[in-house]
Amino acid sequence: MADRLGPARAEPIFDRVALIGLGLIGSSLARVVRRMNLAREIVAVDASDEVRARVTALGIADHVTGDLAAGVRDADFVILCVPVGACGAVAEAMRNGLKPGAIISDVGSVKGSVVAQVTPHLPEGVHFIPAHPVAGTEYSGPDAGFATLFLNRWCILTPPEGCDPAAAAKVRAFWEGAGSNVEEMTAEHHDLVLAVTSHLPHLIAYNIVGTAADLETVTESEVIKFSAGGFRDFTRIAASDPTMWRDVFLHNKAAVLEMLGRFAEDLYALQRAIRWNDGDALFEHFTRTRAIRRGIIDLGQETAAPDFGRQKPDEQ
Ligand code: NAP
């Protein structure tokens, strides 16, 4: 499996890509679009003066603006990289600037809600192909991005029924150009799968770190000192962006509540096994979960390194 981005494309896929929201994901896209020649020109659109100033200083876009309608004008590809809850308002504000035939996409961690928010605002003649790169870190903002964030990671496309196949093929080529493996599924299926593989683990991490912090019998210094006992790995996840994750839970409510119900049942089964000294049940369960971890490593989605194998941006 390639551990580096290959050579840049001879011909870009798009003429002008407009990235809306230059945080971790948007700024990583800007970097890989430039590195891999995925588009001729990059327009960065962000509501924050501070973010725009950083993007300008970093030199990762050709044009930087806070005006949504002006930013998407003449773009043949527009990607919403804002928190899930902001997608509807962004689509409404940019609609008058969209060029006929433009392809609109997003990177939101929830798909059903984004489709429901964005679709009503899109004019006739533009193509909406939602996407979710299953790649990220616990860092935010334009300085946190790096070009290899999507390398060897999955990107899930949820093309709506009856969409233009040529538009979907271009979005697929774009993500493959960024180094991702691409898979397609419905928005509903995506939200169910991600509820268990991503959203629930984040909720558990937020919860356990909060519980440890609340324990009055354990001092803060002990929590930090002995964190290698498992807690530390949860703290990394629990450091993820509060705005992004608030929106994920509010916008994937049904699937998260369904998975949380199943999780609680399984937790009670483990609780019961401990109470009744059922070592066989515990051993069998832990053996099964260890095999799942090995499977993830074998599929190249993780290394066996104890620090999650995550490369630091300056090592990219
Ligand atoms: P981030 O680093 O916090 O960046 C979000 C950016 O969007 C910020 O610059 C923010 O500006 C800007 N923004 C917020 N509301 C806006 C609006 N109404 N108009 C224009 N700009 C706006 O977040 P991120 O991690 O890149 O996440 C962005 C999206 O990617 C989310 O939908 C998330 O679900 C998805 N995603 C994230 C990950 C991950 O691991 N982080 C992975 C896959 C997908 P301010 O700083 O001023 O708020």
Topology, please?
Blueprint: E1 14-20, H1 24-36, E2 39-45, H2 49-58, E3 63-65, H3 68-72, E4 77-80, H4 87-94, E5 103-106, H5 112-118, E6 127-128, E7 131-133, E8 154-157, H6 165-177, E9 181-184, H7 187-214, H8 220-225, H9 231-238, H10 242-251, H11 253-275, H12 279-298
Helix pairs in contact: 4-5, 7-9, 7-11
This protein binds NADP nicotinamide-adenine-dinucleotide phosphate.
Care to describe what's here?
Strand 1, helix 1 (24-36) and strand 2 (39-45) form a beta-alpha-beta unit. The chain has 2 domains: 14-185, Rossmann fold (3-Layer(aba) Sandwich); 189-315, 6-phosphogluconate dehydrogenase C-terminal like domain (6-phosphogluconate dehydrogenase C-terminal fold), CATH 1.10.3660.10. With 316 residues, the chain is an alpha/beta fold. The strands form 2 sheets. A 6-stranded parallel sheet has the order 3-2-1-4-5-6, with helices on both faces. Strands 7-8-9 form a 3-stranded mixed sheet, covered by helices on one side. Helix content is 48%, strand content 12%. The model is unreliable at 311-316 (pLDDT under 50). The chain contains 12 helices and 9 strands. The structure holds NADP nicotinamide-adenine-dinucleotide phosphate. Residues 20-26, 46-48, 51, 81-84, 86, 89-90, 107-109, 133, 135-136, 140-141, 241, 244, 248 line the site of NADP nicotinamide-adenine-dinucleotide phosphate.
